[in-house]
Amino acid sequence: MPELPEVETVRKGLLALVQDKTIATVDVYWPKIITNDTAKFQKALQGKVIETIDRRGKYLLFRFSDNLTMVSHLRMEGKYHLDTAVTPIDKHTHVVFNFTDGTQLRYADVRKFGRMTLGLTGFEQSLSGIAALGPEPLSKAFTIAGFTQALKKHHKNIKAVLLDQHTVAGLGNIYCDEVLWLCKIHPLQPADTLTAKEIKALHAAIQIELKTAIAAGGTTIRSYVDASGQQGHFQLQLHVYGREGQPCERCGTIIEKFKVAGRGTHICPKEQQLR
DNA sequence: AGCCCGTCCTGAGGGC
DNA sequence: TGCCCTCAGGACGGGC
User: Fold this and answer.
1) What b/e readout covers A131-152, taking b as 16+ CB neighbours within 10 angstroms?
2) In what helix (H) or strand (E) does residue A55 lie, and over which residues does it extend?
3) Is the C-beta of residue A91 closer than 7 Å to nucleic acid chain B?
4) pLDDT tens-digit readout, A133-151
5) For position A237, what pLDDT does the model report?
6) Range from A89-103, A221-235, A249-263 carrying the lowest mean pLDDT
7) How far is the CA of A189 from the C1' of B16 (A)?
8) What Å value separates CA A193 and C1' B14?
9) From the CA of A51, how many Å to the C1' of B4?
10) Shortest CA to C1' contact from A223: nucleotide
11) N or C: which terminus of chain A has fewer CB atoms within 10 Å of its end residue's CB?
């Protein structure tokens, strides 16, 4: 499941593969992936050049010539890769961008949860999802003061707050469990009850964790690969996610798994206690 | 405003 | 072997 480090890894890899390429045509095999009118989407992209690719939270922002931006969210299993027209389209490929040089950018998504939206650059600021997004965790906009203020507004549990993207952008289920373990905070602890010390530790852990995960090319748990088909390596540095039944690396207590906000959640029951 | 829940999807894995 | 059921979950819209 691509979270910020995986999306950033995809962005960098993808940029190296498709920058400056010109789109000839677009094939759409599962129209629900495109939230615009499919025919308009296809027509608008004809002849456009991919100038760069940006990222905001877990969203990829393809910047095209003529002031067009395509917002793309991979959700659970979305993947991009470069291919040639002679390779048969597999059943999980839903959108194909045909370039004028004969190569293709293919979007595959087993679950079909991913979405793409095209508009005039800047439209993404008012797109639901991006408009309400919290600060980028690796930018100066993510301050301890702002983080503290945002946490005070919520009485729901800290894990749900970190997951919902409004307080800070980019964390998903895996990195939430990891940073909470690092800071010894119980995922059900109400956000507005965290101490200043805990908030400071969480703020730091989020940044270190995401930076380290980006450096490792992201985390491959089920199926994540980057734009070149390479797996990430950060799964080797996970402390709690997917480790239920195994001893905590710090204290030896058996890691437990239960549901929080509808998500599988992993904790060390000794070190992460609800207050 | 905040919060919770249903929805979208398919493949993997368990039970019998 | 094969079938059925459950689980995995990010974001969003609707309802309270």
Assistant:
1) eebbbbbbeeebeeeebeebbe
2) strand A50-56
3) yes
4) 999 999 999 999 999 999 9
5) 77
6) A221-235
7) 41
8) 40
9) 41
10) B11
11) C
Residue type (1 letter), A183: C
Protein-contacted positions of strand C (CB under 7 Å): 7-13
Domains of chain A: 4-126 (3.20.190.10), 144-267 (1.10.8.50)
A211 touches strand B (CB under 7 A): no
pLDDT confidence tier of residue A262, bands split at 50, 70 and 90: confident
> Among all residues of A, which ones are annotated catalytic?
2-3, 58, 263
